[in-house]
Amino acid sequence: xxxxxxxxxxxxxxxxxxxxxxxxxxxxxxxxxxxxxxxxxxxxxxxxxxxxxxxxxxxxxxxxxxxxxx
Length: 70
Hints:
The protein is 0% helix and 36% strand. The protein is an all-beta fold.
């Protein structure tokens, strides 16, 4: 799912984010959303969030799991 729309992201969802330091390499960090930091409905580079482990980054992908699979 697209990480550029705030409506696609909720607290508790598993996402992949790119941290500021990793923007050049594109390295993604996976985690669970603790807070949404971007106020606007959309953002060109992804909605900024804070993960439960304290990492701040822009969402590149929202991970959706099928029923019965985790």
